[in-house]
Each structure stands twice: as C-alpha cells, then as structure tokens.
Amino acid sequence: MTPPVIDGAFARWLAGRAGELLLRTRAEVGFADPHALKAAGDKLSHELMRTELARWRPGDAVLSEEDKDARSVGTDRLSADRVWIVDPLDGTREFSEEGRDDWAVHVALWGRHGTSPHKLLAGAVAIPAQHRTLATDFPPAYPPMGGQPRLRLAASRSRPPAFLADLADDLGADLVPMGSAGVKIAAVVGGEVDAYVHAGGQYEWDSAAPVAVATATGLHASRIDGSALKYNETDPRLPDLVVCRKDLAPRLLAALRAHISG
C-alpha cells in the first residue's frame, strides 16, 4: 500500500498501521505472560515503523524510544532538518492488561525550520483499542468550554507528580487516572478532562505527537513553568508538561508556579 504524501496524513497512516499490528499481537500472544506481550509489542511496532520510515522517508532522521541509543547524546538526528519522533507503544503496562484500552502509538515530525516554538510539523496519536486516531492533517475540533462543576485533571496511574493531589485541592479539581500520555492528552483534546499535568520523568517521544495534535487543535501546551516545549534536543529527556484549554492556562500555570516555588 502506498501511503499519503502529506506528512500529517502519513503520520496518521503510520500510527494506524502500527496500531493494527499491535491489536493482532495482543490477540496472538495473549495476556498470560505480560512481559512477553510487552516485549513483542514494542519490538514489532518499532520494526514496522523503522521499515516504513526508511522506505517512504529515507532522507529523514528518526528518534524512537526503542532505539538502543535513544537516550544517548550526539546522534545524527541533531544535524538533520527533519526528525520523526516516535513511540511505537506508549503505555506498555496497559497494553499488557486484558480489557484496558488506554495505550497508544505516537508519530510526530519535527522540522528545523518549523515556525512554532516546538517546531512540530505533523503528528498522530493512534488509540488502537478505541479504534480512533487523532492527527494534524484533520485536527479535532476545539473541546467544549467546561460545563462541569469541578475541573478534571488527567493523572498517571503509576507515577503521578507528588504535588498533584495538593494542586487538585487548590483548584477544586478531580483527578482522573489514565494510562498512556497520549491517551491523557487525547482526553484533553476530546473534552473528557480539562487538563493534563505531568512532572518527574518523560522523554520527547512521550509527548511530541500528542502535543502536535493538541496545538493543532488550538490548545495550550508548555512546560509546567510556562516555557516552551522543545524537541530534538541533545538530551531527549523532557520531564514535565501541561496541556489544557487556553482559557484555563493562566489559572493553572499560576497554581503550578505556587507549588513549584513552594
């Protein structure tokens, strides 16, 4: 099958291909050995992405979570004009648990000559078990403005920031635990939650594709101190971020500053 030429549509196509493969892998490997299922999913999705990117975007560099040197510095991608930042399977824990659908596939394109601070040119987040893909070629509509009596903050199931419970209390917000970072940001895009705040351990591939979709939709995305998210950096660690509606950003960032300084 020949994929689309336009980068946003290509990202959607590639994320969808990997998602279909992961669904088949889940069905074939089963859930009896979670470690084996995680390993198979990571490996097969990574190999598919590497193969298709080499075939259809041979002049571009790639930063993938599953590359052996992904966390190293000084790789060839730093001099490239275009870099695909991919997470072949975001939310391996959820992927290995029968019945859970909060795992995702991330595909993003960074460009040296991009006009936005984060320089993300395209992106797609596939949520295969929910049979949907969000991408920048046709960005989702801006989420509805509130309507809930309390704010809802997406929170990590396994490692929420230590200050998040206190932040939620200050804001009068409820925490909504979810798996994959891509699923959390997709929930903000869809209006199921009002914001996603994370601090304490992520990498560029965890957020690049979801942030590309969120900003294409018109949402706010930044570090928790309000500074710009930057991708294809020497060190791919990008430990914190906040994604929310633009009308909520000043209030949320002010509350975050109080907790950071405190």
TrEMBL record:
Pfam families on file: Inositol_P (PF00459)
SUPFAM superfamilies according to UniProt: Carbohydrate phosphatase
Highest taxon of the lineage: Bacteria
Keywords: Magnesium, Metal-binding
Substrates-to-products reaction catalysed: adenosine 3',5'-bisphosphate + H2O = AMP + phosphate
Family matches, as Gene3D superfamilies: 3.40.190.80, Fructose-1,6-Bisphosphatase, subunit A, domain 1
InterPro entries assigned to the protein according to its UniProt record, in alphabetical order: CysQ/Inositol_MonoPase, Inositol_monoP_metal-BS, Inositol_monophosphatase-like
Protein known as: 3'(2'),5-bisphosphonucleoside 3'(2')-phosphohydrolase
Organism for this UniProt entry: Asanoa siamensis
